Amino acid sequence: MGDARAAHRERTAAETAYRQAADARPESPTPYLRLARLYRDWNRPPEGLDALARAEERGADPKEVAALRAALYAAQGDWERAVAEGERALALGDDPDTLRLVARGYLWLGRLEAARSACQTLAERAPADAEARECLGFLLALGDPSAARPYLQAADTPFSADLLAALGEGEPAVRLARMGQAALSHGEPALAVLALERATVRMPDFADAHALLGHALEGIGRSEAARVHLETAARLAPDSPLARSLLGLHYLNRGDPAAARPHLEAAYDLDPQNPAFALYLGFLYADLGQYAVADIWLAEATRLAPEDPDVWDAVARFYLERFPGDARGITAARALVRLAPDSAGAHALLGRALLFAEDYAGAEEALQKALELAPDLAVAHYDLGRLYLLRGQREVARAEFIRALDLNTDPTLRGEIEGIIREQMPQEFLVGQLLAVVLQL
What integer pLDDT is reported at residue 320 of this predicted model? Predict the structure, then answer.
């Protein structure tokens, strides 16, 4: 049935089964609740919210509805609504997962005291919860490093270790800046903002703190506030590679390569051995339409870091996106595979490059290797489906497309797959869907 399919991440078949159940039992909230959970795990929040509304209309448990709705709003980045729904769920009953989500929402909304209280509650209820201790330790360290140490030591994570190292700084502004930098390096921009805002208040002319704060604000979607701090950093320290590069990237990511150019060129001039700056200049000149110049800068990046897989990955993706099937992209992807032979993503990237170059045998070998390393890599299943469709192996292609849809959590990729199915093989897809339902009955 649908639950068994969902448990095995056969989500397309599970979706069909739940909708069949909803048609058979139109007054029951259960099928719609199951659909909402499925869409939550499938990263399809709009469909999940719609299913949840139908479940609520049919008398679903208010606590479960509120908790699910909080998770779906959080997946959309709507933290105001996520927190409101999460608080409603917690008022109806204790739920550690919802409390953790609400705590994260408080952080994104800058509600420090509420976040600290939620993390304190989580840490007290689950002493083995490293994430809760990590979060509580960080929040305490904003004002009282000595109180934070026991929690960070108990968390015993790479993030907490970096935070403990930051606490050794004597100057408060420097300590806060290092905490913010650690948070950024561990993918926690909301936490970084809390520390870096305090660093810039304590030391208004601290250019690096302004630059990092701008970068953190970008990470939580506050682009205009980010620009103010990035420009402040560049004004305070025009010879800082960090300040100039982050401001240049800000403009580049906003689609303004002309504004980005002086800052990225300055960053490279200040630190010409940094391969990242050469990469940025390659992207910049491509956006300016000067592809010959872009080629020179990308080659310079790989010269500076010939053994760095991240550099080769960026170069391979650049050519794959801009010039699919180009030999330069294939060369970069092969270099990436050589440097990262156990990376499924590297093999998948090579497979896609070879697919565009119409080297179908090579593409299949690379994609199969990617799936050997990571069987649930959706993009590899998708590209195998395209390969088989080009070969005329429609049934095998359909199976790969459905597997990619079952696993995929990227809306853009999902749209590409569904478009191919609708346009090129609608009959096979519908037959497969019907067969999947029959097998569950």
Answer: 96
